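Report of the visiting student (M.T.), summer placement. My assignment was to run the structure pipeline on a short list of targets and document each run. The first record concerns VMO1 protein.
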Amino acid sequence: SVIAVSSGGPWGDWAWLEMCPKGSYASGVSFKVESPQGLMKDDPALNGVRLHCCYGEERSSESAAESQSGRWGSWTEARWCPHRGRLVSFALRVQAPQHGVLHDEVAATSARFACSDGQALEGPGSAWGQWGDWSPPCPRGVCGIGTRQESAQGLERDDTALNDLRLVCCQ
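After the run finished, the structure tokens were exported:
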């Protein structure tokens, strides 16, 4: 099954679903974020999310699942659930559409992931926008990801990059 939130941004298209390798589950997450660019500049904010997949007690950044990501920003270090926990749900911080020539559309600005022990892992994204509700939980953990991305809009255009996420529950 797939879990989602209702607070995602409205732009872009859904990319492919990327799954953790068979028999593994997501226990960590990293974020691709572009820092604020300053007044009158374009801020795509959160550009991507990467799941770090584990087999049992093994923790490694070598096995990952990542759907499409925007081209701006850089990846953070992986953040891990404690005590060999699994990612089970998520929430997005999203800036609502600004609808104006002088306003910068940003869409998703940060994400939070809940671990099976109740701990939350939060990305370093910007403070713009509002946190939406948590997704329903995956009973056995998360094993895949899909993103809704707006492609690069070209020079002098407004880019939002990551707009929304879907997570795939382990079978």
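The first strand starts at residue 2 and ends at 4. The domain at 2-33+45-169 is CATH 2.100.10.20 (Vitelline Membrane Outer Layer Protein I, subunit A). I thank the supervising group for their guidance throughout the placement.
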